[in-house]
UniProtKB/TrEMBL annotation:
GO terms for cellular component: plasma membrane. InterPro entries: Endthln_rcpt, ETB_rcpt, GPCR_endothelin_rcpt, GPCR_Rhodpsn, GPCR_Rhodpsn_7TM. It holds the Pfam family 7tm_1. GO terms for biological process: developmental pigmentation; enteric nervous system development; regulation of blood pressure; vasoconstriction. PROSITE patterns: G_PROTEIN_RECEP_F1_1, G_PROTEIN_RECEP_F1_2. One of its GO terms (molecular function) is endothelin receptor activity. Belongs to the G-protein coupled receptor 1 family. It comes from Balearica regulorum gibbericeps. The chain crosses the membrane at residues 20-37, 58-80, 115-141, 161-181, 201-229. Its main location: membrane. This is Endothelin receptor type B. It is a multi-pass membrane protein. Residues 1-226 form the G-protein coupled receptors family 1 profile domain. It is found in: Cell membrane.
Length: 281
């Protein structure tokens, strides 16, 4: 019953919807990877502290993220198609990954799709985050002694942003784990010759349904997680959306300066602005 829904939007939308879905997930995944790398570069490089080359490099990163994500989503548009299916005496036209593909590459993509999605769209951001956060921790410990006060203050800001990025990656992992887990289990333990396969398949379909909703919930949780983790995000949120309910006098000088930096469009070295660009992408 989860699959037996007539698709009323035609073959064009049948191909466009999975394409947009995979492109958006790819943008999220690659943005998390870029943020993790950027946090390490911010701590390890003195030029980052001075703001040298930040806007140009950020623009290049964003363009690359979008281009790569769109290219990787093209096979989804090719693979999905309208399929005729009989269900309870009715003939339905449903939108699914077509069981027979026209080229050998698309047949290989269909067979390896779940493993590819699990490795690239789930394991990759977690592995990159773990690797670069380990390097960043070692770098902070190495530079801990003999640093100037200004550098220490700057590193405090960078640690807050790093904590925010780590929180985003953690929320991403928790929200996407059920969907990937159900599909990997389906590949490894589901057997078409098993007499209890119908009950098992129904269980996997329910897991898929829950996993898809959890994955969609990820986008809703992100701003809430940012509000809970980042003090700067809280201050700017209050300044932007709650200005009518609180006086500017209630905001400290530091908070107002932080919000002004957050709103600025100049070429300064505000690293949280760069992080916000990635999160929006």
């Amino acid at each position: 019953q989860l699959l037996a829904e007539d698709w009323p939007f035609g073959v064009e939308m049948c191909k466009l919807v999975p394409f947009i879905q995979k492109a958006s997930v790819g943008i999220t995944v690659l943005s998390l990877c870029a943020l993790s790398i950027d946090r390490y570069r911010a701590v390890a490089s003195w030029s980052r502290i001075k703001g040298i080359g930040v806007p140009k490099w950020t623009a290049v990163e964003i363009v690359l993220i979008w281009v790569i994500s769109v290219i990787l989503a093209v096979p989804e548009a090719i693979a999905f198609d309208m399929i005729t299916m009989e269900y309870r005496g009715k003939e339905l036209r449903i939108c699914l990954l077509h069981p027979t593909q026209k080229t050998s590459f698309m047949m290989f993509y269909k067979q390896a799709k779940d493993w590819w999605l699990f490795s690239f769209y789930f394991c990759l951001p977690l592995a990159i985050t773990a690797f670069f956060y380990t390097l960043m921790t070692c770098e902070m410990l190495r530079k801990k002694s003999g640093m100037q006060i200004a550098l220490n203050d700057h590193l405090k800001q960078r640690r807050e942003v790093a904590k925010t990025v780590f929180c985003l990656v953690l929320v991403f992992a928790l929200c996407w784990l059920p969907l990937h887990l159900s599909r990997i289990l389906k590949l490894t333990i589901y057997d078409q010759k098993d007499p209890n396969r119908c009950e098992l398949l129904s269980f996997f379909l329910v897991m898929d349904y829950i996993g898809i909703n959890m994955a969609s919930l990820n986008s809703c949780i992100n701003p809430i997680a940012l509000y809970l983790v980042s003090k700067r995000f809280q201050n700017c949120f209050k300044s932007c959306l709650c200005c009518w309910c609180q006086s500017k006098d209630l905001l400290s000088l530091e908070e107002r300066q932080s919000c002004l930096k957050f709103k600025a469009n100049d070429h300064g070295y505000d690293n949280f602005r760069s992080s916000n660009k990635y999160s929006s992408s």
